[in-house]
Amino acid sequence: IGKNLSIKNFDVVKPQIDTDFWKKKTFHSKKVRTLKITCIGNINKIKNHLNLIKFLKEINFDFELNIIGEVLSTQKNYFEKIKHFQNEINKKKFKRINIIGRQNKYKIRSILNKTDIYMLPSLTEGLSISLMEAMSMGCICLISKNSNKSNIIKNGKNGFTFNLSKNSFKNSIVKIFNLKNKDKKLIHKLARETILKQNLINKKFNN
Fold this sequence. Notes:
This protein is of the alpha/beta class. The protein has 6 helices and 6 strands.
């Protein structure tokens, strides 16, 4: 994991993030048994929740996935497919999917504070505000390469990217699970620093 993080790609105005609010209160120092994973975004095909759940079915780790977001009215059939897999997975011991709908920022911050991995598996995505908030919290982020058009995530430095395949996802999540504590702390630090530096650039740009 590198010590220096270039943010030369932040040469245009990006959203401002309230880094005083989006700040993690606690960091897990011990190796976790159950990965707490959070995914934020309206439930629709573009956000790719269904494939994420299918990928998670294939990993050997215990996990708890929290899906935060509304079900779009045009996506009810897609949501039913997600519910089917949710019911199937929740029958297994130590594997759980929670679909908790839209939440206010205080509840989201509370969930992110206990999150091991923030997931953004979208088929296509602009610069996600929820991703930047998770980075400001110092979360370890794992996002699809399709969600990284702004190059905000430097793979292996301030987070991780995967292509939209089962093997790429599995390799990435195994890598995160096996991170040493010092490497976790460095990723936490660099993720937050990315957003802090972005805010400074935006301030200079706007002035």
